[in-house]
């Protein structure tokens, strides 16, 4: 599986935008870029995913570099409830029945200050 | 609301006993479910793939006789930690892909925290 690299931790103040980077230099053409987050003592929660184009949803935006070797998760206005570990994961859609298997890296611990 | 539910959310047991954790898909059928384990301050580690009506597929290094997985119906997978020991204390999480999630989101349970005394 292609690996991703994320900073161990980041901090933000409440109401400010947060840009969480992810490097995936060995990404293949069939890899989707997925972001999940995990709040303390909870299971992971889907945030957003994309392939080539930038994506927006109610939770966040995903900016994907033109060469797809990096991406950035953007939280437009951080709240205290956004404090979590954010995981950037690649999923190969050609993997058929193993599609649901996710291999989590260390992720980025986001701290939001009031 | 939650689409994948786990039970129990917390369990404490004595060393040597077996503990069963359930994972249910609430409003969809899941022929495949996945089990993860997470130690404190660590990332999730995929343990096994649970397949409805057939044997589970275990990741390398995971003892299949220690962690018994049964996927007897399209909405229920169970993980049984047999002869549990303190080192098995961990946060166990299941996930299930729902129709339409070919490239989209996967749903995770709330997690089950096992403490073995």
3D architecture notes:
The complex is a heterodimer of chains A (114) and B (117). Chain A is mainly β and 114 residues long. Helices cover 0% and strands 46% of the residues of chain A. Chain B has 117 residues and is mainly beta. In chain B, the strands form two sheets. In chain B, strands 2, 4, 5, 6, 9, 10 and 11 form a seven-stranded mixed β-sheet that branches. A four-stranded antiparallel β-sheet of chain B has the order 1-3-8-7, with no helix packed on it. The N and C termini of chain B lie far apart (33 Å).
The best one-word shape of chain A is globular
How far is the first residue's CA from the last residue's CA of chain B?
Answer: 33 Å
Q: Percent of residues of chain B in beta strands? A: over 45%
Total number of beta strands of chain A: 9
Show unreliable segments of chain A.
none
The ordered string of helix (H) and strand (E) elements of chain B is EEEEEEEEEEE
Shape of chain B: globular
Tally of extended strands of chain B?
11
Strand content of chain A: over 45%
Overall residue-averaged pLDDT value of chain B: 91
Structural class by secondary-structure content of chain B: mainly beta
Alpha carbon gap, first and last residue of chain A: 38 Å
What does the main sheet of chain B amount to? 7 strands, mixed
Structural class of chain A: mainly beta
Element-level helix/strand string of chain A: EEEEEEEEE
Using a beta-carbon cutoff below 8 angstroms, give the protein chain pair with the largest interface and the number of residues from each chain: A-B, 25 and 29 residues
Overview in brief:
Chain A has strands at residues 9-13, 18-23, 31-38, 45-50, 55-56, 61-64, 70-75, 84-92, 108-113. Chain A has 114 residues and is an all-beta fold.
Lay out the secondary structure:
The complex is a heterodimer of chains A (114) and B (117).
Chain A: E1 9-13, E2 18-23, E3 31-38, E4 45-50, E5 55-56, E6 61-64, E7 70-75, E8 84-92, E9 108-113
Parallel strand pairs in A: 1-9
Antiparallel strand pairs in A: 2-7, 3-4, 3-8, 5-6, 6-7, 8-9
Chain B: E1 4-7, E2 10-13, E3 19-25, E4 32-38, E5 45-51, E6 57-58, E7 67-73, E8 76-81, E9 90-97, E10 106-108, E11 112-116
Parallel strand pairs in B: 2-11
Antiparallel strand pairs in B: 1-3, 3-8, 4-5, 4-9, 5-6, 7-8, 9-10, 9-11
